[in-house]
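Standup notes, structure subgroup. Blocker cleared on the S-adenosylmethionine input:
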Amino acid sequence: MTETGRIVFTPIGIVRSPFISTDGMPIQPVGAADVTAEVVIDEAFAEGLADLDGFSHILLVYVFHRAGPAKLSVVPFLDTVARGVFATRAPTRPNPIGLSLTRLIGRSGNILRIAGVDILDETPVLDIKPYIPALDAAGDVRVGWLEGKTETSFCRVADARFRSGGG
Ligand SMILES: C[S@@+](CC[C@H](N)C(=O)[O-])C[C@H]1O[C@@H](n2cnc3c(N)ncnc32)[C@H](O)[C@@H]1O
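Run returned:
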């Protein structure tokens, strides 16, 4: 952390995905099981990918680099009424950080091949963590305003509402 209270991160790499526009792209990995992409990690960080191959799924932490200005109240893709941004996965957050659980198909040197991609091309990657069900899968959960939404709902596609300069 800097003296001004700002936190400075250095991206470790970039996502190369088929999506150059948010229009019509998946809103969550669950709706994008067949969509593949590459995560190209900078050579300076490639040593940190050792042993990742043994995991079937990884959590990607990244920056919504093309999100519009932060909003504390948003109408999410999955609803028609405004919700507090922290009760949603909307990109227009005070700290525009995205989190996607993707399937790791394989690794070739500093390049990860992944499936289940709801991430724009050229998105800067901040971190990668292995998905570990014993740590990450909670039981006895409540899902708030998403109660009753089926997996089909999560397969809908995005529009321009959270895009920088978008309506
Ligand atoms: C609803 S968010 C969910 C992302 C992630 N799974 C999460 O929960 O944090 C996914 C949407 O964010 C938008 N998006 C993806 N990558 C982005 C980027 N780099 N900058 C701005 N918006 C992005 C697209 O509209 C995409 O459909």
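Discussed briefly. The chain has a mean pLDDT of 95.
Next: hand off to the docking folks.
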